[in-house]
Specification:
It contains eight helices and eight strands. By secondary structure, it is an alpha/beta fold. It has a single domain, classed as Carbamate kinase, CATH 3.40.1160. Helix 1 runs parallel beside helix 8 and helix 2 packs antiparallel against helix 3. It starts with 5 loop residues before the first strand and ends with a strand.
Amino acid sequence: MSELDAVIKIGGELILDEETCRSLLKELYKNILTGRRLLVISGGGVLSDHIRELYRKRVISDEAAHWMAVLSMDQSAHILAEKDLNIKLVRNPIEAEQAAESRHLPVMLVYNYLRLNDNLPHNWSVTSDSIAAYIAFKTKTRFLILVKNVDGLYPTPEIREDNLIPAIKASFLNPDKHKIVDSYLREILCLKPDYKCWLINAYHPERLTELLKTGVTFGTEIII
C-alpha cells in the first residue's frame, strides 16, 4: 500500500458547527479531486464531553472511559457522513486509500482498528489528537494536520493573533500550558523524526490547501 499524503483530524467541537464544517469538508474534497490521498479523523466533541462528566462522577473507570471516548469519535464520523459531500466511512487505511482513489473523502471509524492495534494508554492523556497521530504513525503517513477552532498554540491562555507560537519542538509541548493538544501527543510525535505536524484554524479552510501544496501556512508547526 502506498502512503497516504496526510491524516487530518477535525476537532470534535467543529462537527456541529454546520457552516464551518461544510466549508472545511468542501476544501478537503477539492484536494481529493486533485489526487491527494487524505484520511480524516473526527474528534468526539460534545459526545466525549459527556463521557468525561461520567468519569468525573466516578460512574465509569479509565478503561471504560477510553473505549467509550473512542466510540464517540465513530459517532462524530457518522455525523460528518451525513453532510453528503461524497464522504465514505472507512475502517482501515487500505479502505481509506481505495476511497481516495475513487474520489471519495474517507472518514475513519477508528474503534475496531484501535481494538486490533491497541498500543495506547487507556486514560485521558490520550484523546483524538494522539489517536490521529498514532494512526498516521501506523500508516506511515508523514503529514499530520490537526484542525482546531483556534490558529494554533499560544504561550499563555490569552489567545491573540500576534501571540501565536509559529513553531515548537514536540519535546517542548507542555500539557499544563499547551492544553489545545493532549498530553500524550508529544510521545507519539517523537517516535517519528520524519513527521510533519501542524495545527491550523478551521475557520480559514484555505490554509489547509496552502499547507498541503506548499508545506507551510499560518498556524503552529510542531517540529519533531
